[in-house]
Amino acid sequence: MRLVRRVDSLENVTESKRRPKKWTKELREWLTAIVVAVVLSLLIQNYAFAQVQVFNISMQNTLVEGQRLFEDKLSYHLTVPKRGEIVIINSKEEHRNLVKRVIGLPGETIDFRDGSVYINDVKLDETYAKGQTFPNNFKTPYVVPEDHVFVLGDNREHSEDSRVFGAVSYSDIDGRVLFRVWPLNKFGSI
């Protein structure tokens, strides 16, 4: 009987050496899950959705400095920007993202008269605009090139926009703003 027990205990020792310990297997599973979650979140942040912060006053009163926005990076791979949408632009010159509103579409003629914007000789109704819109040395009338949009900040008298850097190529648009996420009392669509 003693001999049988000794053989059984030797078999258990060698079998336990061959099988990984339960805690190492569980640790490996947790680490795999964490790595997969981090990689997926980075992919989503870089290629699908992102959170951006407003850093200047060019979009007041619609957006103010310090607010955080939820950006959709996927839509413009399937569609093109529409007038009135707020977009995030990759500014290579300023090495930061800019938040602006799409005003003019490809092929449209932009003009500024008496502090207002005219698209194809029709005055644009802009309830969101703060202040008057002047050309600021931008030569008008201006025809928006193909695959470009003309963007303006809502705070027209204090905005560096297409009047300064010209029309924006579709390829320079990072995404569109879906809604505001911060501060919480302003949470929701824009």
TrEMBL record:
Coiled-coil stretches: none
Keywords, comma-separated and alphabetical: Hydrolase, Membrane, Protease, Transmembrane, Transmembrane helix
Residues that span the membrane, as ranges: 27-49
Main location: membrane
EC number(s) from the headed UniProt entry: 3.4.21.89
Pfam families assigned: Peptidase_S26
Chain ranges of the Peptidase S26 domain: 27-182
Record family assignment: Belongs to the peptidase S26 family.
NCBIfam families named in the record: sigpep_I_bact
Protein name: Signal peptidase I
Primary gene name: lepB
